[in-house]
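Table 4 source record.
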Amino acid sequence: MKKLDRYILWKFLGTFLFIMALLLCITIVIDIEEKIDAFVNNHATVGVVLTQYMFYFIMFITSLIGPFFILVSVIFFTSQLAERSEIIAILNSGTSFYRMLYPYMLGATILAFIFYMGNNYFVPYANKKRIKFENTYVSKPSEGLRFNFHRTIAPGTIIYIENYKPTDGSGFKFSIDKFDSGKLVYKLRSDKIDWDKKSNRWRITNYYIRELSPNGDKISHGAMMDTTFSFKPEDFTFAENKKEVMTTPELKEYIDYMYKSGQPDIEFYEVERYRRTSSSFSIYIFTLIGVSVASRKVRGGLGWHIVLGIGLCALYEVMMKFTITFSTNASLPPILGVWIPNLLYAGLAFYLIKKAPK
C-alpha cells in the first residue's frame, strides 16, 4: 500500500469515527432526556443503565444510521482535500481518478464487513438486551385480549379463537378447520384452550370433533383432552420487534417455519432479512457518490457538499420507506423493495463518477 493510500484510508476511517462519535453523543443525550423519568420511577441506577442498556443502544443506533454518515464523512474530508488542491496534485502526479478510488473502496470494504457482521449477528443480540431493559425499566409490555383471532397455521388449515390472551396462551371459543381441495374434511370446536407449560401441550375443554369422508362422518366429543398442535403460544405473539432480536440464521429458519405453517405477515421478516445485507452494500454506493460529489472544487465548498450529502441520505431513506411499504402492503417482492433504492443510487454513483474531474 502506498503512502497516499494510507493517508486517504486513515482520513476516511478517522473522519467517520469522529463524526459518529459526535452524533452518538447527541443521540445519547436526547435518548436519556426522553427516558430519564422512567429510569428514576423504575429505580434504574446509573450502573444498570450503562451496563445493561447504553452499550447495546449504541450498537443499535450505529447500525441504523451509520451507513448514511459514511457518505457525510467521505464528503467532509474529500471536500477538504479538494479545497486544499490536494486532489489536483494527486491527479497531476500521474495517479488516475480510478486509482485514487482504491483506498476509498478499501475503507468501504472494512466498514461494510463490520456492518454486515453487526447487522446479521451482533446487533440482534444487542437488540435483545436493549428491548429487555426497556421492557423492564421504560415501558412494560402489555398485551390484552385479542378478539376474533384468525390464523392460517398450515396450507388448508385455519384456526379461530374468539378471545385470546397472549400472556398465558389461553383462549375461548377455539376451532380448527381443515380443507382438502377446497372441501372441509376436519372440524374441531371447543369452549376453551389452554397451554400447559410443564408438558408443552394444549388442553381443550368441552370439545367436539367431526371428520368428514366419503364413507361417512366420524364424530367424537369429550369434556377435556390434552393434545399437541403444530403451533405454540409464541407463534401468536404480536411483538413488532420480534424480527429485530433474531440473528440472520434464526431469521431464515423462522421464515421457513412461517412458510410451512402458512402464517401471515412473512413479508415483514423477509424485508428485515434482505435489509441487513442491503444496508451493508449501500456503504460502497455512498462512498462512490461522496468521492464524486466532493472531489470537484465548487463555490460554497464544504458547506454545499455537506448539504447535498444530507439531502441524498434523506432521499434514500424516504425511497426505502416507500418501496418497503409496497413490499409489506402490496405485491412488490421484499428483495426488490429493499434493493431498488440501492440500484437507483448505484446508477447515480456511476453517472457521477463519469462526470467527476479526472
